Amino acid sequence: MIRLALGCLLLLTTLSGCATRLVDFAPDEEAIYDQPLDEVWPQVREYFAAQGFNVRDMPGRASLETEWREEFANSRVAAYWHRYLVIARPSGPHRTQVVITRDTRSANPALRAAGSEILWKVDGRTLDNPGGLGSDAAILMAQQQADGQSVILGQSHQTARDLVLEWRVFRALAPKLVKRTQSQASPDVVVHADASIECGVPVLGLGKLARAGNVVLLGELHGTQQVPHFVAQSACQVATQGIPVTVGLEVPDANQARLEAFVASAGTEADWAKLMESPFWRSPFPDGRNSEGVVYLLDALRKLRAQGLDVKVFAYDRPPLEGEAREEVMAQRVLEVATASPRRALLVVSGNLHPRQVQGLPWNKQYRPMGLRLAEQRPNVYSLDIAYKSGTAWICAVSPAQSLECGARPAKGRDLGDRYFVQLFGGRDGQGYDGIFYVGAVSAALPAVHQGVEPAGGGAAQASDR
Predict the structure, then answer these.
(1) CB-based contacts of 87: which residues, under 8 Å, 6+ apart?
(2) Are 433 and 384 in contact (CB under 8 A)?
(3) Higher model confidence: residue 167 or residue 121?
(4) Residue 304 belongs to what H/E stretch?
(5) What average pLDDT does the structure give for the chain?
(6) For residue 465, is pLDDT > 60?
(7) Contact 3/27 with Cβ under 8 angstroms?
(8) Is the dihedral of CA 409, 415, 420, 421 positive or negative?
(9) Helices H, strands E: what count in the chain?
(10) Tally of CB atoms within 10 A around 299
(11) Which of 22, 46, 99, 458 is surrounded by the fewest CB atoms within 10 Å?
(12) Which of 133-147, 309-323, 345-359 has the lowest mean pLDDT?
């Protein structure tokens, strides 16, 4: 269990230069104030007001709801909105607990409930119904006008309790109540100066692995919205802990200069054109590695870097190599980046065959995957297999006519809830994995060019008919 005092690092305080020891980014113990409710609540309310939120008090109780706030504003694909429901309640004589629930909505469909279609518009007006009469959007807008609430429409959403923010508020309001108990097993790191950057609902278990010097290999199912979103959210949460983070993509390394230039850019039309001019985005057999989800991840990294966080990206695939020759080149590229960046955490995304740290495949008992080759040459290499709830993915498969066909196909998984998490096995399993990363229900990510992310042209993306 994470003890009562987690220190300024874990709690993401807004103070800079404050070091402590880290167990995980997401605490699993609640913060309790040793003050009565009538003393705590005014301070809590003032905290949110001081952070720039407009708040609406719930009548008759110590609770409030903030208005929606946009993050990654002006991002072409990565913007999202969030708000908080804050409730304070007694927790015994002269003690108080503050519970904070975070609601996130996004134009990106990664958080969309499986099977639903995203609604992203300010009203339901159409050419043949200029008033939007009878639409869900019109009803919600009428409700907004009636009760003064702000409404963000969309079915791509995630709601969860935010223990990290609860501790951040606690540390800001009651620092003298904390008894510092540090874990000697955790490394010293320094909080980034602007730790108020929002990274979404904390990824449970991430902080146990995503540390300076560690290489975390994420074996994915290509072609989903959720894996790129998971990686973007993880990179943000690692970087706000003061740990520089580098994301590795299974993209041809000939694209390295384009990736670096885009992540360092302002995201103008010209910057997008330079990124997308590569033939990689126009493969006749798009297998999910060049999807709209990957574009979302790149733009999220660009926005994080623009806000001062130390994030980088690298490509490590080497076509047309195949088989073990490809595994060796990919391993050496990851090793090169890891060796040159000993203080960075590496999050390396690939198809889930490559991270395995065991020799052999059903069709080749001598096969040596990238993960095994890396682990033989350096310590602190961790391999995680993807876990997900059933949904869809963009998959290329051989048709009955023996031709390769790509499209959205069913993906059968196991329901482990709706929240992202990382779980270690306590030892490596027979497939060569140290644990899993869970991304909830999956939904197919179309090729980026199908979604209108084309090079050059005007400010509005046009849908492709390909």
Answers:
(1) 61, 62, 63, 98, 99, 100
(2) yes
(3) 167
(4) helix 292-306
(5) 80
(6) no
(7) no
(8) negative
(9) 10, 18
(10) 24
(11) 458
(12) 133-147
For the chain, the 3-state helix, strand and coil shares in percent, each to the nearest 5, are 30, 25, 45
What is the spatial distance between Cα 236 and Cα 314, in angstroms, rounded to a whole number?
16
Q: Which residues lie across from 381 on neighbouring strands?
A: 215
Does the pLDDT at position 95 exceed 60?
A: yes
Q: Tokens for 443?
A: 């939904």
- What pLDDT score was predicted for residue 276? 93
Would the pLDDT of 234 be above 80? yes
Q: Are strands 381-389 and 245-252 parallel, antiparallel or unpaired?
A: unpaired
Query: Burial letters for 215-245: b for 16+ Cβ neighbours within 10 Å, e otherwise?
Result: bbbbbbbbbbbbbbbbbbbbbbbbbbbbbbb
Closest CA to 372 of 384, 353, 356, 393: 356
Classify residue 113 by its DSSP letter: P
> Of 172 and 148, which is predicted with more confidence?
172
Please give the full DSSP string across 73-96, using - where no structure is assigned.
TT-SS--EEEEEEEEEEE-STT-E
What pLDDT shows up at residue 186? 36
Q: Is the pLDDT of residue 136 over 90?
A: no
pLDDT at 307 over 60: yes
